[in-house]
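User: Some background: our group keeps a shared notebook of sequences we're curious about, and every so often someone picks one and asks for a predicted structure to add to the entry. Today it's my turn. The entry only has the sequence so far, pasted here. Could you supply the structure so I can complete it?
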Amino acid sequence: MDALLFALALEVVLLQMRILESTTELRLRLHLNTKGEKAQRGKLVRDRHTVKDVIRRTLVEVVENGEWRTLQEAVQTLQENASYSVNVLLDHERLRFSRSSIINEIKTKRKQWAVDLRHADQKIAVVRDRIKNEQQNANARLCYVEKWLFARAESLDMQLEAPRAPAPRTDHERRVHDELVKAYELQIKEREDLLEYWRQRYVDDTAKMDERLAKKREELKVALARRQELQKLYDLHAGEMRAWLTFKSERAARLAREERRATAAKRLQAWWRGVMVRRALGSFRYLKTIKKSPSKSKKK
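Assistant: Of course. Here's the predicted structure to add to the notebook entry:
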């Protein structure tokens, strides 16, 4: 019944759309349309054809299966298209805003670049003035240095042209030579004495070092022997400790096994005692009550 009513409603919608389409075509024949109106009319015609197609397929599906899945899918598609158009508009607004912000940023950067360019021109002018001043100072210093060199050369020439002292006498040179020979011989003797002293000290030091090395060698032998004894004692103690640890672990495992066995036995005994109590077995049997037969009253 619902499918029949739905099919009748769809047929009524188709009839209304045909009437609207015919009236729209009659109205458009009387007026000239612009390009925008023609585009809108084309979109309207396409939408009407789409709706007609959906309604026809829905009617066929309702008649055949009693369902209108085609109409539901068409509605979902229209909703997705509407949300897509909204998303496109939002993206357009966001891109337009970003474009305006980028344009403003570029304008700001252009202004900053112009300011930097003016500052650079000013710096270039300052550097040029500084280079010019340095060149002038260098020229002045060069002129001063040239004049100082000329004056120094003249003073040296005047010093070289001065009269030389007379040559020393022969006896004076011999006396100086003898004194130098004595000084050299004294230095040689001092060096020989120092050499002998250091040689004897080297011999004494090497003898002391040999004695010390021999003593250290003996101490090292004693220490090595002591170390071997201690190593043997340590190995023996380590073996005893390993044996003791093994014994402790085995004893702990044995005690744990015995405890588990005792616990299991207690549990089993308790369970069996409970079974005997519940079922009245063995020593837990119920005592039978002896019913006394009523004594016959003597007939009077």
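Suggested note for the entry: Residues 191-259 form one domain. The two ends are 98 Å apart (CA to CA).
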